[in-house]
Structures are given as C-alpha cells and as structure tokens.
Specification:
single chain; alpha/beta; Aspartate Aminotransferase, domain 2; Aspartate Aminotransferase, domain 1; seven-stranded mixed beta sheet; globular; binds pyridoxal-5'-phosphate
C-alpha cells in the first residue's frame, strides 16, 4: 500500500505515519498499524468507546452514513472506533484488505459461511476441523439448506476437486488441523479452488499471521478465534474475519454478491466496493442483522494481546519443539504429532509453510491406552486440565472425552483422536519446567503395556 503524504499529528506537521505504513515488519505493525492517536486526543492507548451509539450530526451526514457513502459510526453493533483499530491492525498483520470483528470465533465462522452460501449451496470442507465448526457444518447449517461436501483426505488434491460441485461456494480448511496438527498444502488447494471459481477460506487460529499468512499462499478469507493466541491472555472470547481483497464475486457463482454490488454501486466507490465486497457484505448483513458484535472492551483487551503476538508466538514455538522432542524420546510415549519434528509426515510441508515454527499444539499418544492417558492427566502439575488452547499458560486435555466427545469412534480416529491421545497447548513458561512436569507425570508408566 502506498504511503500517505505527510500528515499532521496533534497540530504539528509530521512527515511519517507509522500507523499507515503497511511495509513495516510484523513486530512494528502489531504495535502501530491502524491507530493514529491524533484523532483521539493523542491518547497513546487505543480508547475504549464504551457507548451504544454516536451522534449523527446533521441530516445529510446521517443519510450518507446509512448509504455507506461516508465512513463513520452510528450504532456500536455496526461498527465502532475501538473495533475499527483491531480490524485495521489484523488486516495489516494478515496482509489483507479489510476485517470485521465478531463476538467469538464461532460467530466469525458462521457469519463467513452464511455470507458465502445460501439454501441449496455447499461448502467443501475437510474433517480435521475444530469441533464447533464440524458441528456447524454437519448439524446446524443443514437446517438452513447449506450442506457440507466433505473432502475425504485433506492431503489429496483430487479429493478437493471431487468435493467441488456447481453448488460449492467455498473450500474450508484450517492452517493446522486439530489435534493431529496436519498441514495442508494451502497453495495447491487454493489453485484447485480458484480453477473452479471458488474462494478458499482458512481458519488461521492455531497459526496466527505471525507463523502463517494464508493470503501469501492464495487464500481469500481468513477466520480467527481471537480468544486464543491473538489475545493470548486467556481472558476474552472474540473472533475476526479478514479478507484478502480482489476475489471475483461476479464469476457467476455468487448471485447474492452481484445483487449486493448492484445495490451499493451508487454510493461506494467502485474500486473500494469490489475490493472489499466480502467484508462489507459480512458487516452489513450478518454482523448487523445477527448481532454477534464484539464489544469495544473486548477489542481493547484483544489489542493489548496483539501488541506482543510475535514475541509470544516465537516463544510458544520454541517451547513446543523442545517439549515435542522430549516426549518423542520418552519410552512411555507412542507418538507425537508436531509438524516441525523431522519424524512428522508433515515435515516437508511445515518447512514450506511454517518457517517460524508450526505452532504450539501437540497431539500425544501415550502407552497404556485410556488408563495411561488418564494417569498423565491426573499427575501433571503445571499443565492445567482445560479445553482451551493458545493461552500463555500450558494446558492439557483428553480430546476423546471432551472436545471430540460424541463423535463416532471412526470419526474420532479420522481426526487423529484415539483413547490414548492427549492434546497439549504449550505455553510460554520455562521449557525446562514444562519438560520436568511431563517427565514426572510419565514416570513409572508401563513402557511396554499397550
Ligand atoms: C476456539 C476455536 C474456534 C472457536 O472460537 P471461539 O472463540 O471459542 O468461538 C474456532 N476454530 C479454532 C481452530 C479454534 O481453536
């Protein structure tokens, strides 16, 4: 993006606005992108606009606002200045054109899918997805006439091609599968989807834009649960959708976008309307009318997390690799799923996509079956027994009896969940402490009793 001409800050002329320079490195953008204190009484912290609504000003301005002819805020459910900073910052970090905040990751994902598909349409999706998304696709959206066309094997490019029918409106994948940590060849999948006029949507929650920017590999939309690493402090539920910009919504597959573009052509500059059609329609239709907006206080807390995202992700990934290597060498451990390990079947893909490390979630199969897994859960001291991931504090869970509970056994196993599988979310504690904790929890486990 081109740099702006010299601006004014607090009345004094300045020649450079860091907040508006997308060429800066990630570590700088996460602190400055999208926020200019000059418009906010010079407040260095992003202010929390804790109001329900904004004065409209004069009659003509109200008309312009409601035509989306003028950027501005009227009612907090539609937009507000605190969320706008988070949206601009996430768009900058992802290398995208625009973003929309939601109340949760699930409201971001459901809004995204409803923006793409209508009754009678399909979403081509892999099965190695977050449990909530799988349930949404398998059990909730079908009641609205939207069905999933499942990609049999996420590693098989032909399976994506086979899953795309004339009714398919998106291919949906995750940057790192859960909990088998499978890596998908995003660039190749994007090409298969684009050949057929279909956009690629990636849930980037486990990777964050610091470890993987799906737009660099051809994705069109990225969804995040900001509850996890984006916030990092484990205090705040939130979600964000980012759009790359430039997908051709007039390719014949998306009549709802054609109608939307037509309806708004009189007011919004054609370039801006086309380039950010996805997030504009998402905000005007699904954020506004379903009402799952992120509160400004949540946006503020999330921004506090974003400021340290790269620092935390570096540490998370370093710790995860150390813990994974330790576990892999332990006689009571059957298997460790972590793409950066040389033994991982995804090692080559991780070398392509995850040069800064492949996140901090590990799938671990221990000896001794269900009893073996239970024994570890009951003995860990630093790892907390929780279903969450992406906190700075380490967590452990037994997926078969929690997040994947209720799925038939074959479905669980296809997602990499066995009765002896534990999922670890490796935090930013001292790696030595984490390894000693796991060592004592595994101590005395029968190394040969399967
Ligand atoms: C947690 C999570 C979600 C759902 O997000 P919420 O903020 O809990 O609604 C979606 N996808 C992934 C990969 C997640 O980890």
């Amino acid at each position: 993006m081109a740099r702006r001409p010299p601006g004014r800050r607090g009345g004094a002329p300045v020649t450079y606005d860091a907040h508006d320079d997308d060429d800066l490195a990630f570590d700088t953008l996460q602190l400055h992108a999208g926020y200019d204190p000059a418009g906010h009484n010079g407040s260095k912290a992003v202010p929390v606009y804790q109001t329900a609504a904004f004065e409209l000003g004069d009659f003509d301005r109200c008309v312009r606002l409601f035509n989306y002819e003028e950027d501005g805020h009227s009612y907090v459910r539609f937009s507000n200045p605190t969320n706008e900073v988070l949206e601009k910052r996430m768009a900058a970090l992802e290398g995208g054109a625009a973003a929309v905040c939601f109340a949760s990751g699930m409201s971001a994902i459901s809004g995204t899918l409803l923006n793409l598909a209508r009754a009678g349409d399909e979403i081509a999706a892999v099965k190695t997805l977050y449990g909530g998304t799988t349930t949404l696709l398998a059990d909730v959206l079908p009641d609205f006439g939207i069905t999933a066309s499942w990609v049999a094997d996420p590693a098989d490019l032909d399976a994506y091609a086979a899953a795309i029918t004339p009714r398919t409106k998106a291919v949906y994948i995750e940057s790192l599968g859960n909990p088998s940590m499978n890596v998908i060849d995003i660039e190749a999948v994007a090409a298969v989807a684009h050949e057929r006029g279909v956009p690629l949507v990636v849930d980037g929650t486990f990777a964050t834009p610091y470890l993987l920017r799906p737009f660099d590999w051809g994705a069109d939309v990225v969804c995040h649960s900001s509850t996890k690493y984006i916030s990092g402090h484990g205090t705040t539920i939130g979600g964000i959708v980012v759009e790359r910009g430039g997908f051709d919504w007039r390719n014949g597959r998306f009549p709802q976008f054609e109608k939307f573009l037509e309806e708004n052509a009189a007011f919004i500059a054609p370039g801006a309307l086309l380039h950010t059609a996805f997030t504009r329609r998402l905000r005007m239709r699904y954020l506004t009318e379903f009402g799952g907006h992120m509160s400004p206080m949540t946006a503020f807390l999330t921004l506090n997390g974003v400021e340290t995202l790269s620092l935390r992700m570096r540490r998370h990934a370093e710790n995860a690799l150390e813990v994974a290597a330790f576990l892999e060498s332990h006689p009571a451990v059957l298997e460790v799923s972590y793409p950066s390990l040389p033994s991982s079947p995804y090692h080559a893909l991780a070398a392509k996509y995850f040069r800064r490390g492949s996140g901090a979630i590990l799938g671990v199969r221990v000896r001794g079956g269900l009893a073996g897994a239970r024994r570890v859960l009951e003995r860990v001291r630093i790892f907390d027994y929780m279903v969450n991931v992406g906190d700075t504090k380490s967590m452990i869970v037994h997926p078969a009896t929690s997040i994947h509970h209720g799925l038939p056994r074959e479905e669980q196993e296809r997602a990499g969940v066995f009765e002896d599988t534990l999922r670890l979310s490796v935090g930013t504690e001292d790696a030595g402490d984490l390894i000693r904790d796991l060592a004592q929890a595994l101590e005395g486990a029968a190394p040969t009793a399967d």
